[in-house]
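User: Please predict the structure of the protein below. I'd like the answer in C-alpha cell form so I can feed it into my own downstream comparison script.

Assistant: Understood. Taking the following sequence of 219 residues as input:
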Amino acid sequence: MNLRLTFSCFFSFLFCLLAAQKPVDSLKSKWDYKPNFMVGIDVLNAGMAAFSDRKVFQAFVSSRVSRHIHAVADAGFEKNVYEKNGYDAQASGAFIKLGGFYMLADDRENPLNGFYAGAKAAASVYTQEYEKVPVRGFGGSDTSASFPESSQRSYWLEAVIGGRVQLFESSFYIDVNLQPKYLLYATKQEDIEPMIVPGFGRSSAKFNMGFSWNIAYYF
C-alpha cells in the first residue's frame, strides 16, 4: 500500500472540506479567523495506568477554524505488555494523530459545547521486544523463541465520535470520545504481526477501539 498516497488523499480531502466553508457574514470575502486553542489531557487512561500494565499518557490541542469545523492534533506515549496465547511481548513509544472534526450539534450560546464526529491520520514510532514467541519444535512439540529489542513503526486511520461540555462558567471543558481504528501498515520483526502498537492498542488485528476522557482548557 502506498502510504504517501493514502496520507496525501486524506489531507487533501480535509483541506478541500475546510476550503469549502463560507464565513457567516456573507459580506466578507475571507475567513474571520481569530486564534483560539483548546488543550486537553486524557485523565482516564492516565489514571488507569496505576492499576494495569498499560501506561498511556496523551494530550490534544484543537482550534476552531469555523463555527462547526475544528482542527485537532494528539500526541502521547504508551508502554504496554502482551502475555497471551504463548506470546510474551512488550512495546513502548510515542505516537501522533492529526485531523479534524465537525460539530454535528452545538449550543447556540457556546459553539464549543456539543457532539462531533471526525477523522485522524496517526503514526507511531516505538521499540518492541519478544521474550517468548510460540513455535513448532522438532517432532511437532511446542516450544518458544525470543527476539531482541527492535525499532518499529505503524500507521493507521481512526474515526472520532464524541462530545464536550463546559464546566459551569469556567474555561474548563470535559471532552469524551470513542475512536474506532484501522491499522494501515506496520513493520514486522521476523514476519511476526505486532502484538502492541502504542497509540493503537494491544491487538494483532487490523481493527481496534479507543476511548478517552479529557479535561480541557480553552484559551
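That's the full C-alpha cell string. Strands lie at 38-42, 55-64, 69-84, 87-106, 114-136, 142-166, 172-186, 196-197, 201-202, 207-218.
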